[in-house]
Amino acid sequence: MTAAVATSDPRATGAAVDVLSAGGNAVDAAVTACFVLYVVEPQSCGVGGDGFMFVHGGTGAPAALDGSGAVPLELTSEGLREAGHDSVPARGGASVTPPGAVALLETALSEHGTISLADAVAPARQHAASGFEVRPTLAATAARSGESLASDPVLGPLYVPGGTPVAEGSTVRNPRLAECLDAIGSAGSRAVLGGPVGAAIVERVRQDGGFLSGVDMARHRTTAVEPGAVDFAGHTVWQMPRPTQGPSVLGALERLQPADPVDWEAVLEATSEGMRAAGFDPAAIVVGRPKPATGDTTFLAVVDHDGTAVSLITSVFGDFGAHLGVDEIGGPIHNRATTLRMLSKEPQPGAKPPHTTIPGLVTRAGRLRCVLGVAGGIMQPQAQVQLIVRMIEEGLGPQEAVDRPRFKVCFGGDLALEPGHELAGEHPAALSRSPGPEGFGAAQVVGWHRGRLEAAADARRGGSSVVLD
After folding, report:
1. Which residues contact 335 (CB under 8 A, 6 or more apart)?
2. pLDDT tens digits for 160-209?
3. What's 228's domain CATH number?
4. Segments forming the whole domain that contains residue 77
5. What's the CA gap between 386 and 382, in Å, rounded?
6. Of 37, 197, 279, 318, which is least packed with CB atoms within 10 Å of its CB?
7. Helices (H), 49-135
8. Where do runs of H (alpha helix) occur along 312-442?
9. For the packed helices 101-112 and 26-40, what is the interaxial angle rounded to 10 degrees?
């Protein structure tokens, strides 16, 4: 049986391929690749972030793991006002929740993997210690965020050395992250959520006006959750439940009647209605001053030789998270709580904040059809719906579906279109409208098409995919 990998970076894809070639399973490969991404895509993900994962054993419902952190117990509306904030800020210490990224990977590996955590971090540790080449996505984000990052004592020297953002092709070495990965390999997530590293995270966040405490870190757990599902055109589409955007996808597909040819106006309307009903209405998000934090995510998909599949999404939410580097983790801490600002919600201490990150998975008659996901904030459910329509209704293969033009309902409700989209005739002005810094999303898909396992990676972000015979 063939296996396949798709990630946003060829180094992560290569690490996963090495694990599969050595006899590891999909979870082993996905966790190893994810740690590599924590090194080479620091603008999007990292030890200081969070994530969600589906694991599918080949038949039946997937296992769903939630690695997100809860709103700190001290983060209240009153506390924000006393600190001079009208709501959770876009960046900084007050936007931080417990980082559950490492605990998610550790839990997945212990419950579904076969290799040790030390083995899983080894390729990432090598990249951090020896240095890695800067790719266009990191260079562009460093340039966009450079003014804010330059003054940070951790992120500035790494990504804006001497006041100049790192350029494509330059080399970044991160020995402190290598040390952190060594500690994770030895002690697991306890190395991040507790002990000296956890204490350093809390101290750094609180020094910057944050509300994170040691109690919040100690309370954090990766949790198994019940996924949501909807039947669509003879398939079952699986999504994470609230507080993620998963219900947006399910709501859109519930409203959508398959048609031949596809009615793209109906797809646009169903997607907008699904997001609105799930509480992620782009039209209700007003871009004012200060602007919401721009952000990104990374997604990877793996299917192994036995048919086990992983759909894994992980993020620091904003570009370089809270723009708050922690020396002991060699990178940024995330700013997940700022979704409360974006959606105009009051904090509920101890509850999960809204999450934009959603892995996707599709089955047919209980057997895997594909795993899919998209990086890009509110573009995630929109692109997932479009990919599902392309693959299931139009019958396209994964790569062809990923490459097709997309629509995006932007903040404020304006529509943006990529050139060549079917909606261009009815919405010509949308072709010249900017989709914002997150663009039209970056997707990865691994799935079955006409009896063959195929893998697709998004050229919009230089993705990389491999099929192994």
Report:
1. 90, 91, 92, 95, 96, 293, 295, 316, 317, 318, 321, 322, 323, 324
2. 999 999 999 999 999 999 999 999 999 999 999 999 999 999 999 999 99
3. 3.60.20.40
4. 3-131+173-468
5. 6
6. 279
7. 77-82, 101-112, 117-130
8. 339-342, 379-388, 398-403
9. 160
